[in-house]
Amino acid sequence: MAVLQQELTLGEAADQLARALPGHRVEILQGRLTVTPPPDGSHGLSLTKLCRALERAGIAESDAEWVQGVGLWLPTLPSDFAIPDLSIVDEDFRDAHVTKNYYAPNVFRMVAEVTSSNWSDDLGPKVECYAQAGIPAYLIVDRKHDEVLLYQDPADGKYPDPVRCKRGQTVPVPESVGISLDLAVDTLLDGDD
Questions:
Q1: How many CA atoms does the CB half-sphere of 22 hold within 13 Å?
Q2: Residue 176, pLDDT above cutoff 70
């Protein structure tokens, strides 16, 4: 008996995987489908501490918002999209809806990733994709290499070399976010105060 199989587009395959693997993050980066398992507790605490710091610094009184897990449409290839761990966006970002749950890159002021098992995506393809999308700042809490990287001000689709911050240092939140704040590297890496 012959079985008729339908060939899926990359977007359809991503949708099927997202439904089949609840809690996993499914993204398409540079035409490559990626699936990341749910994060560990330290990863979640790092994001919680970052969000609390943003709140204390007055982001609610600015014209920006922080959101977790919102889709970012990437202009690199037709099906490309990412779901950053945390995004700082214009408060009216929902007006920039592109498709599905993805929003246009022009409303993103900063994206942040806390590395997990997919650390090589955060340090490689996402740097390239976010720069090509014109994201003003990309913060990477690199738990694999025990440092925080801040990419800023892309030009011609590329970020200049990042600011690298080690334990005991702070990393300034870029002006593009709209608030003044220095973040403790140790807190970002460990999720502790």
A1: 0
A2: yes
Report CA 178 to chain centroid distance, whole Å.
18
> Taking a C-beta distance cutoff of 8 angstroms, is the pair 164, 147 a contact?
yes
Q: For the segment 12-50, what is each residue's pLDDT rounded down to a tens digit?
A: 999 999 999 999 999 999 999 999 999 899 999 999 999
The four Cα atoms 12, 114, 138, 56 give a dihedral, to 10 degrees, of 120
Which own/partner pairs from 92-95 qualify as long-range (CB within 8 Å, at least 24 positions apart)? 93/65, 93/67
Those residues whose C-beta lies under 8 Å from the C-beta of residue 54, and which sit 6 or more positions away, are: 66, 88, 173, 179, 181
Contact 146, 189 (CB under 8 A): yes
Place of tokens 């749910």: 38
